Amino acid sequence: MRLGKHIFGVGVMTGISRVFGFVRDMLIAHVFGAGRLSDVFLAAFKLPNLFRDLLGEGALSSIFIPMYADKNKDENFAKNVFSWLMVVLLGITLLFEIFMPIVVWILAPGFADDPGKMQLTVLISRIMFWYVIFICGSAFLSAILNAFSKFLLVAFMPVLLNIMLICVLLLGTFFAQGTILYLMAFTVLLSGVIQFGILWSRIRRRHFGLRLIKPRWTPAIKSMFKRLGISIVGNGFYQITIIVGTLVASFQNGAVSWLYYSDRIVQLPFALIGLAVGTVLMSSISNALAEKNMRSVYIQQNSSMRQSMMLIIPCMVGLFVLAEPVIRCLFQYGAWTAASTHAVALAIMIQVLVLPAMMISQIYSKTLYASQDVRTPVKTSIISLAVATVIYLAAFYFIGYLAIPVGIVISGYLKNFLLRRACRRRNLIHTEPRTRRAIASFGMLAVLMGVGLWFVPIPNVWMLFVAIGIYAIIYLPVAYLINKKI
Fold first, then answer.
1. Local confidence band at 418 (pLDDT 50, 70, 90 cut-offs)
2. In angstroms, rounded to a whole number, what is the distance separating the alpha carbons of residues 188 and 348?
3. Given a cut of 60, is residue 57 above it in pLDDT?
C-alpha cells in the first residue's frame, strides 16, 4: 500500500474540511452574532459532538480495526458489532431524549436566567441528538472501509456536514433567525442520515453482507466493549485536563482567548498531517500484525516517520518564526490589540515545539492499538496529562498563562518517551539509522531557512503569503531529494 498517497489524500480532505468549518463558523457569527441563538445552537451541538468524539471516529476505529484484521475481516463479527453498537446508541439516545432538560441544565446552568432560552436549547438538543446514532454508525462503517484501505470517501464525510450547514446559513437573509436555528438543527440530523447512507451504499457495492442481526454476547464483543470503555476513560481524562487548563488561565484577564487562538493555529498542521498518518497507519499496521509480518510494520513506521517529519518540522519552524505576523494579519482588527497579538504569538512559539512529539506519538500509539493494546496508550495519556496539570498549577504563579503551553510541551515529550518505551519492550518499533539521519537533515534545513525568514520584514498579509510560499518552494524540493537520497 502506498502510504504517501493515502496520507496525502486524507490530509487534503482534512484541510478542505477545516476550510469549510472556518467558513461555517464565520457565517454563524454573521447570521446570529454572539447572542442568544448562537449560544443555543453551539450548546446543543456540543452534545452530539461529545459522543462522536467518545464513541465514534478515532476511538471506535482504533479498537475495531485491529480485532477485525485479526479475525481475517470476518463478516459475522462485523455484523454482531454493528448490531450491538446500534442497540447501545439507541438506548443512549432515548435516555438523553427523556432527561435532556437535566443534561442541558448541567451543561449550561446560566441559560435558566434567560426566559425561554433553556427550553429552546432543550428542544434543539432533542432534535440534534438523534444525529448521534447516524454519526457513530457512520464511524463504524468508516472503520470497515478503512480496514480495506478505502480512505478518501471517509475523509470527505465531515466536509458534507459543513457544506450543508453553509447552504442553510446562506438562507439567513430570507428567513427569520429562529427559523434558521430550526433548519440548522434538522440539517445536522439530515447530514448524519446522508453520511450513513453514502457509506452504507459504498459497503454494499463491495458485496459486503453487513446488516442488523440479533446481537450475541460473545467473548470478542465483551473484549471490544471493555477496550472501548478504557478508551473513553482516557478521552474523558483529556477533556478534564482541558477544563483545568481553562480554569487556571481564567485567573488572568484575556488568557483564555489567547490560548484558544494559539491552540487553533498549532493544531492545524497536526490535523492535516498527524491525523492523516494515524488514520492510514491504523489500518495498514493492523493488517501487517494480523499476518505477523513485522518487516512490513517496520517499513511502514519508518516511511511514515520520514514523510510526516519532512512536513511537520518546517511547520514548527515556520510558526515559531512567523507567529506574530500570522496573528497580526489574521486577527489584529477592530477591538483586537497589539498586546493580544504578542500574547498569542508567545503562546504559539512555545506550544509549537510539541508538534514533532505529537507526530511521532501518533505513530507509536497507533502501533500499540493495532497490536490490540488499549491500556498502554490510555495509561501514558493519563500520566502525561496529570503531569501537564501539575505544571499548569505550579508554574502559573511564575509565568502566568504561558504555564499552559509549557505544560503541553513537557507532557507531550513525556508521552512520546513512554509510548516509545512500551513499543520497544514489545519489539513493535524499529527506527532505522537512515530515518534518524533524514529527520536530522530536515531539522537542519528547516532551521537554516527559519533563520533567514526571521529577518524578512512582513508588513501585510500579502508579504506573509509570499514569505510562506518562498519558504515552501525552496524547502520542499530539497527535503524531498534528501528523503529520496537517504
1. very high
2. 33
3. no
Query: In this structure, how many other beta carbons lie within 10 angstroms of the beta carbon of residue 22?
Result: 12
Which candidate, 375, 461, 455, places its Cα nearest to that of 419?
A: 375
Instruction: For residue 297, give the C-alpha cell.
Output: 510494520
Give the C-alpha separation, 414 to 420, whole Å: 10
Indicate the length of the chain as a whole number.
486
Give the Cα separation of 296 and 423 in Å (integer).
16
134 membership: H or E segment, kind and range: helix 131-147
Tell me whether residue 334 is exposed, middle or buried, using C-beta atoms within 10 angstroms of its C-beta: 0 to 12, 13 to 18, 19 or more: exposed
Dihedrals φ, ψ of 289, to 5°? -70, -35
Cα 254 off chain centre by? 25
> How far are the Cα atoms of 50, 77, 225, 290, 374 from residue 67, in angstroms, in the given order?
25, 9, 12, 9, 12
Q: Supply the pLDDT for residue 235.
A: 66
CA distance 28 to 218: 46
What pLDDT digit, counting tens, does each position of 136-192 carry?
A: 888 888 888 877 767 777 778 888 888 998 888 888 667 777 788 888 889 999 998
Cα separation of 259 and 405, whole Å? 8
Q: Coil, strand, or helix at residue 157?
A: helix
Query: CA dihedral defined by 169, 136, 266, 245, rounded to 10 degrees?
Result: 100
User: For residue 263, what is its C-alpha cell?
Assistant: 491552540
Helix (H) or strand (E) holding 454: helix 433-454
C-alpha cell at 10: 486524507
Those residues whose C-beta lies under 8 Å from the C-beta of residue 359, and which sit 6 or more positions away, are 270, 273, 274, 277, 308, 309, 312
- Domain extent listing, the chain: 1-216, 238-486
372 backbone φψ class: left, alpha, beta (φ>0; ψ -120 to 50): left
The SS3 call for residue 427 is coil
The three cell numbers of residue 144 are 470497515
Is the Cβ–Cβ distance between 218 and 365 less than 8 Å? no
Q: For the chain, percent helix, then strand, then coil, each to nearest 5? A: 85, 0, 15
Residue 15 C-alpha cell reads as 484541510
The confidence score (pLDDT) of residue 353 equals: 93
Residue 291 DSSP symbol: T
